[in-house]
Each structure stands twice: as C-alpha cells, then as structure tokens.
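Exercise 7.
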Amino acid sequence: MANMAQAIRMALHHGEKHQNLQNIFGEDVGPPLGGVFTVTQGLKTAWNTPLDERGIIGTAIGLSLTGSRCVAEVQFSDYIFNSIDLIKQAGMMCWLSQGRYTLPMVLMTPVGGGVHGSIYHSHSFDSWATRFPGWKVVMPSTPLKAYGLMISAISDPNPVLYLIPKALLRQKGEEKIPGEPQDEGELKSMIDAPLQNRENWKPKWPDLQEYKIEIGKAQVVEAGSDLTLVSYGRTLHLCREVTKKLKKENISIELIDMLSLYPYDWALIKKSIQKTKKIVFVNEDTEVTNFGEHLAYRTSKECFYDLFAPPKVIAGKNIPGVGLHPHFEENTLPSFKRIEEEVRQLLQAQP
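Solution. The predicted structure, written as tokens, is:
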C-alpha cells in the first residue's frame, strides 16, 4: 500500500497529466530532493524557490491571477506566519473583484506534532487557517484520502489550504490508490528515487485514475450510538484506537473524520449529535481560540436540547511551544491516554 507522501505525489502527477497543473514550487521542491518529505519527487513541473515564504505565496497568487493552476509549498507551517497578510489577500480576491478573478491555487504545508520536531517543526495551523474567509481548508488522515482531497483541491477554482499531518507522511494506507500497482515494492521502484545518483533518475508513473473526495464533506469512520468523537489528521488515529478499545467493552463510539475544515460538514456532525447526545472534538492545535471551540459553540447553540452533557474539546495545551523531549510533546498534545480518560468521563455524564 502507498504511504501518504507517495499518495500526494501521485495526485500531483495526476494533476500535471490530467488537470492542467502547470507549476509546483517551494523550498527544495524541485529535483533532486523533491521536497523535504519527497512529496514532489519526480514531478516534471516542480521547481525550487528561494527560502522566502512571502515570495512563494506571492508567486502563487500572481500565477493564479493569470489562470495558471499551481501548487505551492511552505516547507513547514511554523514558517508561514510572515505571510498572513498575503493569505488574507488571496482569500479576498474573488469577493473584491465581484467574481471576476478566482485563484486556482493550492497552498500545501506540513503541520502538527508527533515527530519530536520541537518548537520550530511541531505547530499546527488549522485554527488560523479556518479564520481566512475565501479559503477552503482540508486535512487528510489516510493516503487514499490525501489522494482524493489533492485532486479535488487542484480542480477547485478557489484557493485551497492543504494541511499535511507530517507524522502520517510515512504511514501506509489500508486501501489502494486507484491505479496503484498490486505490489508495494513495484510502486516504490517506480516512483521513489534512489538514495544516490538521483540526477538522471526518472519515475515510471502507474496508470493513475481520477478519485475525488468532495471538499466540504466528512466521513463516518465508525458508526456508534453512545458518543460522537470528531477529529481529523493525526489525532483521528488516536481517536480510532480509543474507539477500538472501548468497543471491546461494548461501548459504541461514532467516529467522524472531518477531512474538510472549511467548509465543514455540519449536517453530518449535527445528525450524529442528535443520535448519540454526547460529543467530543479532538485536534492538536492550542486550546485557546481553537477551531474545536467554534464547533462546540455551534453545538451548544443549535443542539442544546439534544445534549445529555456539555460538548467537550480536547486540544493542545496553551503553552508557547512544543518541547523536544518526548515527555514534553506527549503532555502538550492530545494523547491516547488523555482522549480515553476524557471520553470515559463524558460517557458517565447523566442527562
């Protein structure tokens, strides 16, 4: 099975071949490296930029204004904050021009912890991302979902923030990418560059098929009736493990993968709340002004009389950074243990 880095790479190749994707660029994105996580390895339209996030995003805006589809990468989301004004301008472009200009651009960046990257390579961007009107925001949790979301993002006429959970980039999927060869080793030999002598290497792409996941739609990963657990990206897998453990005790958890942070599938979430009466939102961004707080507020506002207990948000601690030592990271970001404890606590609440 392909891992997430391979899945995104194959989706970008599909974009080059079938979706008129003309430019893929960022720091070390071009040959021979193909990105720090090898997400752009072997792609014919990939090229390197200076180490300048404002320049990267500004170039993407300029290309998109001419109608040229592009995918720009900021190497780590920790370094995107010097470009907030440009991100805001990109989101306003269609509105300001009364629909005359759209920006068919994808801005992808790795986010989150789980790799012991310390204070400069562990932070999240999802709460910030959802505050930029005019942008669509997605975050995959599996290779197949990464493939489907990227193909949809490339096709979209609006600017799309594609947030990549860096801890999942080497994680293999449970479902094959459409067109992926049956043998895992064969795929690796086709699209992964050798560690040495890369200069003359060229990939042999499989016959990839179109597969889209609609932006704005969530997925029920596990149906349940006792409590709703909503997450995305890396923390979705922690929630899934908690769900599996509790299932052995005949506790039925409904697990939802948001996939799209904006627009988000409120209809699906609301339907689940009305069924289970209890809900927990989980993500690893800091807990103050967290995106999950917005979802909890909307839950209280629209589903107050459906609830058996107040909605709960499990998020990263509100401290200046994620520490390097594994104990610091584990006690800063949501963990399996913390999610399990808080879910069990909410399950005990009585109406």
